[in-house]
Amino acid sequence: xxxxxxxxxxxxxxxxxxxxxxxxxxxxxxxxxxxxxxxxxxxxxxxxxxxxxxxxxxxxxxxxxxxxxxxxxxxxxxxxxxxxxxxxxxxxxxxxxxxxxxxxxxxxxxxxxxxxxxxxxxxxxxxxxxxxxxxxxxxxxxxxxxxxxxxxxxxxxxxxxxxxxxxxxxxxxxxxxxxxxxxxxxxxxxxxxxxxxxxxxxxxxxxxxxxxxxxxxxxxxxxxxxxxxxxxxxxxxxxxxxxxxxxxxxxxxxxxxxxxxxxxxxxxxxxxxxxxxxxxxxxxxxxxxxxxxxxxxxxxxxxxxxxxxxxxxxxxxxxxxxxxxxxxxxxxxxxxxxxxxxxxxxxxxxxxxxxxxxxxxxxxxxxxxxxxxxxxxxxxxxxxxxxxxxxxxxxxxxxxxxxxxxxxxxxxxxxxxxxxxxxxxxxxxxxxxxxxxxxxxxxxxxxxxxxxxx
Length: 454
Known about the structure:
Elements: E1 2-6, E2 16-22, E3 29-30, E4 35-40, E5 45-49, E6 54-59, E7 66-68, E8 72-77, H1 142-147, H2 152-159, H3 162-170, H4 189-197, H5 233-248, E9 251-259, H6 261-278, H7 285-298, E10 305-307, E11 310-312, E12 319-321, E13 323-325, E14 328-330, E15 333-334, H8 342-357, E16 371-374, E17 394-398, E18 402-408, E19 411-425, H9 431-446
Parallel strand pairs: 12-16, 16-17
Antiparallel strand pairs: 1-8, 2-4, 2-7, 3-6, 4-5, 6-8, 9-19, 10-11, 12-15, 13-14, 17-19, 18-19
């Protein structure tokens, strides 16, 4: 019998996934739980395991294609013994009978009627389109829409983030009439802002964002020796997120110089015992995370976020630590970092970084961050001014640790110095608060306030 391999829903708000690479070819044998393809979503890159043992009989989705969740991407030929514990295809919940909605391809008719849309978003014959004036009801799960034979338009409504829908609602825009430039027609925040700037309101349909401005001239001359390579799915998402953050937050940065002598001595003194007891190396990253956690507890506004005209104070301190990958950047999150000791943070940092590079992170592990730390210093950068990771309001950049001559008690001394940068959202955080926060981080590091190091 055959077992369907489906595009999984990697998170409650995820409506689609991009199949980036097949790890097995048709005709090859696969084992149960063996990774057979890689996907990229709005939240995470991951390797997807096989649901059964057998032979990869058919591949239905090519590399680089974006399809809705629950789409059958392949089938595995197996027997009853190999498929033990696997729900047979005939007994499994009925998958969507509509064809996969591929990028740039309109959805084909489904036998089941699409969910009814709000009446306010459907204009009367001969009348101009009107935006819905009442707040929409709860957004259904993407999997439920696909199973019900949803159209591409229905899926686009789900794929638009809550922030995008909120902005459209506040400005009386019908999101269904805004051309989406995101993957698979997703309406992004940039599309909504472009619609507002172009004067498209709820009384008329909004033109696609790409047509609201003149086409950009190519960055190369005819006949020039160039190589054009399409962006990867992850790079597109990073680009979209960075541009959105710049448009959203009033970015300001402050830089502090920190003497790392005490931290260097603590590491040298406890490195061997720490690794023997906890099984991980004692790097400098846990010290920066711990110092940031203590400062966030002292200045909770830096751990907050903005929701319209409201300030949302987060009770939990969840630290995102940026991890550079060969194919992009990902920010796994240390949940409840304020409840962890230095050793607990060290273990979490090592585990998350290793699994990020192995594409084994779950969606929950890259969501829910309240503050981010990034370390360009590992490549020698003196310091940087990182872009805030929305919806957070601050991000700390760690520069290279270099020995420098400094004045200590009116004498010249050689000390390991690091420059720490805080990029913060000036809509919420004043310069004085940002500097007080960084002064707290600096004092923790310079005074070596890590009593529980071992």
